[in-house]
Amino acid sequence: MASLSDHKNVNEISVNHVEIPLHMGSCVEARADVDYSERAQWIRAAVLGANDGLVSVASLMMGVGAVKENIRATLIAGFAGLIAGACSMAIGEFVSVYTQYDIEMAQNKRDNKRDMEEKLPNPFQAAIASALAFSVGAVVPLLAAAFIRDRNLRLVVVGAVVSLALLVFGGVGAVLGNTPMGKSCLRVLIGGWMAMSITFGLTKLFAKAGF
Q1: Cβ count within 10 A of residue 39
Q2: 3-state class of 1 per DSSP?
């Protein structure tokens, strides 16, 4: 009787042992089925829009702050940059995606495909998404500078907050696209620093030249 019981326990253990890796394997297969290339287009648009809004408006505010102590001038410049940039991103994305839409529609007609229209890009959605993404990024330096009267402190705070936001945007893009986190964050951060430094330096030089 003892041997039969032992044999039964061994069978139960082996069955339980088999079930666990099968369950884990199904999870691995489900994760492996994620096609990150399908996310590439909207990730690129979102990250590009937010990063562009963040860097361009922050650089604009840095440039104005290099020659103007008045916070009002800096904030007006930043707000104007937000509006102009969001409109530019929306129009540019609309034209670009609409061109892609026309090309794919013409190709579908040549190939006599009638069931592909729902998969075609939507220019209006792309335009709105790009404008919103740009605005989200552009708001960050505006909020960072809004309540700081001292120019030097304001520039330091804007630079620090923008740097942190660049790391966040780079990390989000890496997670959504399943790409290396460190490279993505470092690439975005260095690019932002370069843009702000060049804008600040050249504006300062331009002002000292008496223009």
Answers
A1: 14
A2: coil
* Residues 154-171: b if buried by 16+ CB within 10 A, e if exposed: bbebbbebbbebbbebbe
Which pTM does this prediction carry? 0.72
Residues 67-88: tens digit of each pLDDT:
988 899 999 999 999 999 999 9
Tokens encoding 163: 């740097």
CB 185, CB 170: distance < 8 Å: yes
Q: What letter represents residue 132's amino acid?
A: L
CB 57 within 8 A of CB 135: no
Rounded distance, CA 123 to CA 99, Å?
Answer: 9
DSSP state of 112: T
Closest CA to 136 of 26, 190, 55: 55
Which has the closest alpha carbon to 153: 46, 74, 37? 74
